[in-house]
Amino acid sequence: MPELLIDFITSLDGYAAADGWPGWWGLEGPEYLTWLGEQPEADYTVLMGAATYRLMSGFAAAGEPGTDALAGMSKVVFSTTLSEPLLWPNTRLVAQDPVEAVREMKAKASTSMRTIGSLTLCRSLLKAGLADRFRVVVFPVITGSSGRERIYDGYPDVALEMIGSRTFDGRSQLLEYVPTILAGPPSRPESR
């Protein structure tokens, strides 16, 4: 069965973006950009919502570093507000409920999937138990006063088993986990 990878970039304090900061907080070094172009998930279908599509296709149209690799990837946009034709190459629009659509895609398709941005989409896919792997690249900035879009607000409690890590350009950290949704905080073992 194909896997679903929830994939984020974040500031150290858990924001997906920050007012006034450039993409990747201006810290996309050569190792990170090379990894973006060579990562093994290049054949995965990229899943995103309408806001991320608008943002990323705009970055791609402006020639933002690292977005050229996305142009050739198969992409699915979940939206009831966008209409076809979508201008970004290799992009399909799906107006169906994303949880049900991804459940069907995992059951019927042979291609694995990964998200890009799309906080609401990622939250709903994780809550539905569809995420097989969770990856975050943490950039070394704290955007407390300018940060927006806190990634983990509204998430359930999730236990994360680390399966990999890497440092890019001596400053950004990639962390990979297998997520397990918890009913709540784990109880402490009774002390004797």
Automatic annotation (TrEMBL):
Domain of life: Bacteria
Cited InterPro entries: DHFR-like_dom_sf (IPR024072), RibDG_C (IPR002734), Riboflavin_Biosynth_HTPR (IPR050765)
Pfam families assigned: RibD_C
GO BP of this protein: riboflavin biosynthetic process
Domain Bacterial bifunctional deaminase-reductase C-terminal: 3-170
GO molecular function, one term: 5-amino-6-(5-phosphoribosylamino)uracil reductase activity
PANTHER family (alphabetical): BIFUNCTIONAL DEAMINASE-REDUCTASE DOMAIN PROTEIN, DIHYDROFOLATE REDUCTASE FAMILY PROTEIN (AFU_ORTHOLOGUE AFUA_8G06820)
The protein, known as: Deaminase
Highest classification ranks of the organism: Bacteria, Bacillati, Actinomycetota, Actinomycetes, Streptosporangiales
